[in-house]
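Entry for the shared binder. Reason: the reviewer on the internal report wants the predicted structure included alongside the sequence.
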Amino acid sequence: MAVFPLSEYVSGVDAVSKMKPTAELRITEIFLSVQGESSHAGRPCSFVRLTGCPMRCVWCDSEYTFTGGERMKFEQIFERLEEFGCRLVEVTGGEPLAQKNVFPFIADLCDRSYEVLIETGGFVSTERVDPRAKIILDVKCPASGEAERNHWPNLERLRPDRDEVKFVIADLADWEFAKGVVAEYHLEKRAKEILISPVFGVENLAEIAEAVATSGLKVRLNLQLHKYIWGPNVHGV
C-alpha cells in the first residue's frame, strides 16, 4: 500500500497560502450513511473521507486512512454525491484540512448549495475554510498523545451560530483538561455546541456521563452512534 506523500500535507495557513490548487483530492472512501456524531447525529449524511493525517492519536479509529487512497477529480466526487441525493455532506479524514486542495473543494460544495460539515482534528488552521461551511473542531486531550499539537487560534475562530467543538475523552483527566479549555477560551459563548465524546469502549463511560451531568456546563455527551449500530471496525458507515 502506498504511503501518503508528505508533500501533500499542509501544516498551517502560511503553507496553504503558497500552494496552487489542482482540481483533485486523495480519497479513502465516499459513502452515504447517518451522521453518527455532533448535534447532527441521526441525520442522513454523505461522507467524503480524505486520505492522510499528520497526527497519531493513540485511540485513533481511522488508521486505515493514513495510507493509500485514490486520486479523484472534483467532478468525480460531485458525481458520486449527486447519486446519493443527500444535501448534508461531511468532509472528514484522517485530517481533511491537511490536503492543500480541500479548501477550494469545500468552497465548490458550498457553491452547489450543500450543507457542509468539516470534521477537523485542529492541527491545521481553519482560517481558509469557506465561511459557509460548519466546523466540528476536535481538540486533542492529553490521553490522545497529541494535545501539545493543538492549533489554539482555531478556537478563537469558532462561530456561535454554526461551529462545534469536540473533546474525545478517555478518562477523567481528559475531562478536567476539557473543562479547563472550555473556561479559558469561553467556549460556552464561542461555540454552538460543546461535545464530550468518550472513546468507544471505555470502561468508565458511566463515570464520565455522571461527571458531564453534574458539571453545570452547557455541554453535550456525544456517543458515536454509528459504532453502536454497525460496530467499531466497519468502514463506510
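Summary line for the report: Residues 1-7, 9-20 have pLDDT under 50 and may be disordered.
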